[in-house]
Amino acid sequence: MQGVIPVPIREKVISRESGIWNATITFAKGEILFIQAPSGTGKTTLIHCLYGIRKDYEGDIAWDNNSLLTIDEEDMADMRTKKLSIIFQDMRLFPELTAYENIEIKRRLTDTVSEEQVFAWMERLGITEKRNSLGKTLSYGEQQRTAIIRALVQPFDWLLMDEPFSHLDHTNIDKARKLIAEVTSSTNAGILIADLDENKYFDYTKTLML
Amino acid sequence: MNDRVLNGLLDRLLLQSGKKIRLFAALGALFVGTSLFLLSVAIWWNFNELLFGKNKDDAMASTYLIIGKRVTDQNMGKPMATVFRPAEIEEIRKAPQVQDVGWITANHFPIYAMMGGNLGFATELPLESVPDKFIDKTPAEWRWQPGDNSLPIIISSQFLDIYNYVFAPSQGLPQLSESTVKSLALKLKVGADDRNEIMMAHVVGFSDRINSVLAPQSFIDYYNHKFKGEESGGGPSQLILKALDPSDTKFARFLTDHDYSTNSQNLKWSKVRAVVEVVATTTGVLAILIMGISILVFILFIELTVARAHQSLTLLGQIGFGPKFLSGYMNRHFLPMVGLISICSAVFVCVLQFSAHILVHSQGLVLPPLPGAIVWISFLICSALLVVLIMRSIKQSIKP
């Protein structure tokens, strides 16, 4: 990231100190980064910019020297199936598909994790019974767990997370973070998690204030 | 990607929003549009076949015609005034529809024909020659070289008709079949009295194309030169033209403008053709318009489908489905439908063509049982256009 300032919150961003906005930061492979971001500091904006779905910023963001401002959609899609995975704050499940289908559609696209593995992960996160419930009928907690598994069924170098456990209780947070840690450490993937408060979900290698 | 489960999921996300009836309506419109377009091409082609088509029997006849300079009060008695000069022949060669021009060379020496036996008549016989390629069917015996005393001739089949139906009955003479005529021999006295040559002529063929008595070119050239010397090189007074479509109004105008006369019936068709052209053009324009509208309806249907699935498409893009993948999926969904509709239209037009073939057959007319190449070419062009437009529309509407 180099001198990134989101245009819509430009004034707000430049009026305060930030470890990320308007700074030059390099993420090293395998890093576990925590970005602490109080409300209104642009946490979701940052995650969306890093994931390439927002481009309304000054400066530049590049993954493996591919600037997200100039990358074409096909390469971006390729990056999203091979290098970058995400857990959105608002989950973004397809309401007309079941919990299982929401995961399956991604699994079929990338074809790296077996169906059995998915069943096992669903079991671990306690959503097996909900596998045939439509996305729109799932509770936020169930949606969040489904979104977590969906993010894990593809190969990736970086997992971006935006308040990934906001709708989970302590027990489920524990299960989910352990699963994420397991998967990411087995592939030596990096984690970038943005959340409101300080936490110990993972063994962070770096913490930055937004 | 040929993954049934994935395709099933994508179907549910991208195609469930529209009502089936809308899809059927859009496909129906496309069918009507494509069929009308193909029909209009087929109708135009059939008109051409009926009005200007060449029946097998007179195959080439209607594309060949003989022209001459009109004999008027002004040029009467001036033989050279009705002779075609090289520049004029060159101009005719370049005229619309003209593919080839041949000289009709007449004999410039006296020929006297005598027939013995019961018929017992004798007459002056004007002979003409045309280049062999202008003869309907060149008979095997169609050759002559100086020294030969047997001369093959071809007579107009109309002459035989006149003899059989007009002359013979009135004179109480027997009617003659073509084979009988071919077996008869005519005695010819060629040339002026003092140095004439006697030879036998026999009919080797009949022509529908040329209303004359034809002898091989080598014969006419040889004796024209022998008896008239250089004087015979004055140019032809008649030309035989091979015209692609003599009913073309431009060709007819060319003949009128130059005051050339012809006996071709084909020219009469030029007025009918003008009417047919107007009708066919109007139908064609309407058909293209309707087809355009039907393509537009179908494309709008696709765009509506994509617009309705906008949210799903956006989210699919966000979880890694690239535009190429998604437009490929949409193409795989819509293009077979378009293919099916195109094939249905083609089958429909074929059925109508076959019905027309049966229908006109009972009226003694001939139409081919299947549409011609031009209809198939139009079909291919129209299908290709449809595919390109639909792929483009899908690509553009899916573009993030």
What do these coordinates show?
The complex is a heterodimer of chains A (210) and B (400). Helices cover 36% and strands 18% of the residues of chain A. Chain A is an alpha/beta fold and 210 residues long. Chain A has one domain: Rossmann fold (3-Layer(aba) Sandwich). A 5-stranded parallel sheet of chain A has the order 6-7-8-2-9. The model of chain A has no long low-confidence stretch (mean pLDDT 94). Chain B is of the alpha+beta class and 400 residues long. Helices cover 52% and strands 15% of the residues of chain B. Chain B contains 11 helices and 11 strands. In chain B, strands 4-3-7-8-6-9 form a 6-stranded mixed sheet. In chain B, strands 5-2-10-1-11 form a 5-stranded antiparallel sheet. In chain B, strand 7 (185-190) and strand 8 form a beta hairpin. In chain B, helix 2 crosses helix 10, helix 2 packs antiparallel against helix 11 (373-398) and helix 8 (269-308) packs parallel to helix 11 (373-398). Chain B is elongated. The A-B interface holds A 51, 53, 73-74, 76-78, 80-81, 86, 92, 94, 96-97, 101, 104-106, 108-110, 150, 154 and B 3, 5-6, 9-10, 12-13, 16, 312, 315, 317-325, 399-400.
Topology:
The complex is a heterodimer of chains A (210) and B (400).
Chain A: E1 2-6, H1 10-14, E2 32-36, H2 43-50, E3 57-60, E4 62-63, E5 66-67, H3 73-82, E6 84-87, H4 99-110, H5 115-124, H6 140-152, E7 158-162, H7 170-187, E8 190-195, E9 206-209
Parallel strand pairs in A: 2-8, 2-9, 6-7, 7-8
Antiparallel strand pairs in A: 1-3, 4-5
Chain B: H1 4-14, H2 20-52, E1 64-69, H3 86-93, E2 98-106, E3 111-114, E4 122-124, E5 128-129, E6 150-156, H4 157-171, H5 178-183, E7 185-190, E8 197-207, E9 213-214, H6 217-228, E10 238-243, H7 249-257, E11 260-262, H8 269-308, H9 310-318, H10 323-361, H11 373-398
Parallel strand pairs in B: 6-8
Antiparallel strand pairs in B: 1-10, 1-11, 2-5, 2-10, 3-4, 3-7, 6-9, 7-8
